[in-house]
Amino acid sequence: MLTSALVRRLVDTQFPEWAGLPLRPVEPGGSDHLIHRLGDELTVRMPRHDGAIGQAEKELRWLPRLAPHLPLAIPEPVAVGRPDFGYPWPWAVSRWMPGKVATVSEWGSSVPAAVELAGFLAALQRFPRDGAPAVEPESLADRDAATRASIAQAGNVFDPAGLTAVWEAALAAPKWDRPPVWFHGDFHTGNVLTHEGRLSAVIDFGGLGVGDPAPDMMMAFTLMSAGPRAAFREALEVDDATWARGRGWALAAGLNAYCSYAATNEWVAATTTRQITQALTG
């Protein structure tokens, strides 16, 4: 079982220089990682499941290269821990990043914030692809059966005909046929930090890779209202097909989370309802 006591033991044995630093869990933690703050300057991130393994090494290799070229801060990896004491996966130590998660109430109507986030993606997409990490991307078609099942399940809450139309438009949109570009892979509200009244950082690069940038359009539907969303799209110069695919990704992710957790989690119910509604709006 992954506990704070196990994290303490792993840190103390593998990095004795940090053995005297206080360790305390960060709440709420992420769905993919158990997170602890280590002293005042460091954070420890432990994968919770095998879908998150490999992130520590990927971030250690690539984030220091990307950071100087991006307009917002990104995590600064310090070390990668090894499996031990029954814990099976590599884990990460990074610099602590101050701030709080961006919220719709504070940032959803901000055109400048939307343009700033578009600029972040544009800078990421421009970074040279040489040696980029191999990522086997999931396709929209891979999610077809599950998404149609979710549409049926949520049909008493949302307009099933409208949901189906958005989804089928995404499936029918032409695939990305230009050179692959860097993508974040999980670009949504929960992975943007704000600090002292400004957007400050983008975190959680476990999905980092190169290919079709459409999934990164998720931010437009999780954070932004219609006006900022249009400004985001214009600033990033997103073509119709990529926008349709991105809208499909946002819809599929929102429906999956809604059907899985909305009945037991009011916050998930509210955020996914908004995401689905914004995807329907376009």
Protein architecture, described:
The strands form 3 sheets. The chain has a 5-stranded antiparallel sheet, sandwiched between helices. A 3-stranded antiparallel sheet has the order 6-8-9, with no helix packed on it. It has a two-stranded antiparallel sheet with strand order 7-10. It is globular, with a radius of gyration of 19 Å. About 45% of the residues lie in helices and about 15% in strands. The chain has 10 helices and 10 strands. With about 280 residues, the chain is an alpha+beta fold. The chain has helices spanning about 5-15, 55-65, 105, 110-125, 145-155, 160-170, 220, 225-235, 240-260, 265-280; strands spanning about 25, 35-40, 40-45, 75-80, 90-95, 100, 180-185, 190-195, 200, 210. It has 2 domains: about 5-95, Phosphorylase Kinase, domain 1 (2-Layer Sandwich), CATH 3.30.200.20; about 100-280, Alpha-Beta Complex (Aminoglycoside 3'-phosphotransferase, Chain: A, domain 2), CATH 3.90.1200.10.
Features:
2 domains, Aminoglycoside 3'-phosphotransferase, Chain: A, domain 2, 5-stranded antiparallel beta sheet, Phosphorylase Kinase, domain 1, 10 helices, 282 residues, globular, 3-stranded antiparallel beta sheet, alpha+beta
Brief write-up:
The protein is an alpha+beta fold. The protein has ten helices and ten strands.
In the CATH scheme, the class of the largest domain would be Alpha Beta
* Spatial gap, N to C terminus: 43 Å
What is the tally of helical segments? Answer: 10
| Residue runs with pLDDT of under 50 for 5 or more positions | none
Run of helices and strands = HEEEHEEEHHHHEEEEHHHH
